[in-house]
């Protein structure tokens, strides 16, 4: 159901009667109520939010309840512009700058709900000079 399905409904049909071969029921009012957004959460592949440098990372946003249509936006800590606008965010070649907290924001046109931030760590080969080695 969608919110725009609210209205008055009746049904009609042919009956076996010579007096009234077509009969129409009394109308009924149907009201569709919106369900507030809740339970916005993130799933990550690979599990745990740790991915090797250059590998693929997939974040998925799920909504437990909410009346659609829903719109999604992805945000990274410290970045103003959204990273994506669908229910999934894919980083095909994760780089060291992709280590951060990620969050999904869902809107139903009337309200918004955010997921809990998810920490993503990009695991890469450490430069030996970073440890003071020559």
TrEMBL record:
It comes from the Eukaryota. Pfam families: Ig_3 (PF13927). InterPro entries: Ig-like_dom (IPR007110), Ig-like_dom_sf (IPR036179), Ig-like_fold (IPR013783), Ig_sub (IPR003599). PROSITE patterns: IG_LIKE (PS50835). Gene3D superfamilies: Immunoglobulins. SMART domains: IG. Residues 27-121 form the Ig-like domain. SUPFAM superfamilies: Immunoglobulin. This is FCRL2 protein. It comes from Prunella fulvescens (Brown accentor). The lineage of its organism: Eukaryota, Metazoa, Chordata, Craniata, Vertebrata.
